Amino acid sequence: MTGLLARLGRSGIIFLRHLGRATVLLLHILASMGEVLRRPRLLLEQLFSVGVLTVLIIAVSGLFVGMVLSLQGYYILSQFAAEATLGVMVAASLVRELGPVVTALLFAGRAGSALTAEIGLMKATEQLSGLEMMAVDPVRRVLTPRFVAGFISMPLLAALFSALGVLGGWFVGVGLLGVDDGAWWGQMQARIDWNEDLFNGVIKSLVFGFACVWIAIFQGYNCLPTSAGVSRATTRTVVHSSLAVLALDFALTALMFN
Amino acid sequence: MSLTAGTQGGEASAARSVERAPLPDESAREPLVRIRNLYFSRGERQIFSGLDIDIPRGGITAIMGPSGTGKTTLLKLIGGQLRPDQGSVEVDGLNVHELNRQELYQLRMRMGMLFQSGALLTDLSVFENVAFPLREHTALPEPLLRKLVLLKLEAVGLRGARDLMPSQLSGGMARRVALARAIALDPMMIMYDEPFTGQDPISLGVLVKLIRQLNDAAGLTSILVSHDVEETNAIADLVYVISAGKVVESGDPARLTQSGSEWTRQFMQGLPDGPVPFHYPAPPLEKDILGAES
Question: B121 and A133 in contact by Cβ < 8 A?
Fold first, then answer.
């Protein structure tokens, strides 16, 4: 019993220590935001690396998720002769939940892991130490542009995911299953609320983006500077980000939709 | 530029024939780096326990010792990347660990460091790597910056490699590019972390000669951390041998080679057994072998 308590205490202390370090790093990043405004080229490079290079997986996933939603929804709704509401169901599922959540999970797997590996390798090959010894703050020069790029990219990618999901759903629902085109768009326009659906979805994707990119950058910056250390940090980024996204989604949904 | 001419040909055998410039009058000048009563530990392991070192201006001072004695750690303490548990590190009269971040960065702009791996930024070309500190810390117009970078690359013999990426360089070339980057801001001192490790004889000769010539031509102070005895002795003006967290002996290389200390002699002559035993502490062999059978 004492041993169990001791282990729990140790784990708690380690967790709090990591949380403290991550918070200090976050404050340092936030205090360095001026660098992004002063040198927008650094941000543009990272927007390409973090955002643009993630577009393909997000676009394809969004399209297929929308198509599957439409298929599944049609077979349920048709039992109640409510096929006309298929467009609303697909759009609401995407903008409220699946858009932000699935995008965040894919973002953590593609961009988050790449960020951690890149920063971790820079640490392992002494590039970050080299910057420090050249009197260049690595947080300001390397981490802050990546953080801002991730934070900006996430809601844009989630919007792309949802938009392509709706189009994929339309292709299956209207194009293949024969749902009325006017009903599809008309019901969607009437029922999808700007604040309750779209705005809340954007808030979710901003929060998920913040969490994913914070975890990814901290794991890379805090990793052991060895190949095994970088590998473990990359794995932790994907696992921690995914868990954080799912937990935050529950908390935000509870808050937003009471 | 004499530096360039000096690096061409005969480098492999140059280690022993490197000429030293006369040292400045040391009595009239304070040491550039003064380390006093330095204590530093990592976890349970004590790395330094009461280390005292003076690095005179204008010369090459070597810090030598077996692997794991904390030579690289010492450079990080001098550069302010690590904090000591106790004691002080002064560089040019400034206590490194009492400076705030901005003051520390101001000081680092007057220091160069050559990392063991080179630490080149892998997404930038050779030219951009050398230009990096100039772009970060100066507002030089592009034509002037280009000339400066090409001159620095000329000094290390790699002007022709300016468009290559770090992944296209050999280990020796990467270190020479890193050296050009380290001198980009014309620092007062350069710290070399194991510059000779893993180099072929030609690269080794080039590096030995470059370190000496850059030091003398640019009026630098160099701190050289290494366990390569022959190459280090060929260029060092002063050698500190450290072990178990303290300075074991110091002096000019010739004197240390003839040292009466058994430990120093073993290290300087590379003897396999001595005060540092060949065998890691273990129970007697008979007990291990026969004891297991009985």
Answer: no
| 3-state secondary structure at position B194 | coil
Q: Which amino acid is at A258?
A: N
- Cβ neighbors of A178 (< 8 A, separation 6 or more) are none
**Beta strands across the sheet bearing B45-55:** B45-55, B33-42, B86-91, B94-95
Write down the pTM of the prediction. 0.84
Chain A CB contacts of B121 under 8 Å are 127, 130
> Angle at CA B109, nearest 5°, toward B63 and A134?
80
**Distance, CA of A151 to CA of A212 (rounded, Å):** 9
Which helix (H) or strand (E) segment is A57 a member of?
Answer: helix A55-77
Beta strands in chain A (DSSP E): none
Listed in sequence order, the DSSP H helices in B138-198 are: 142-155, 171-182
CA distance B285 to chain A (A): 35
Q: Give contacts of A133 with chain B, Cβ < 8 Å.
A: 79, 81, 108, 111-113, 115
The tens digit of pLDDT for each residue in A211-253 reads 999 999 999 999 999 999 999 999 999 999 999 999 999 999 9
Block mean pLDDT (10 aa), chain B, length 294 = 39 48 57 92 88 91 86 92 92 91 92 89 94 92 94 90 92 89 91 86 85 87 88 89 86 81 78 76 83 61
Q: Which residues contact B84 (CB under 8 A, 6 or more apart)?
A: B38, B39, B40, B48, B77, B97
**Interface contact flag, B115 A130, Cβ < 8 Å:** yes
Between CA A152 and CA A52 the distance in angstroms is: 11
CB within 8 A of B189, min separation 6: which ones?
Answer: B32, B33, B55, B91, B110, B111, B112, B220, B221, B222, B223
ipTM value of the model? 0.80
Give alpha helix (H) positions in chain B. 2-6, 71-78, 101-108, 126-137, 142-155, 171-182, 201-217, 229-235, 253-257, 262-269, 285-293
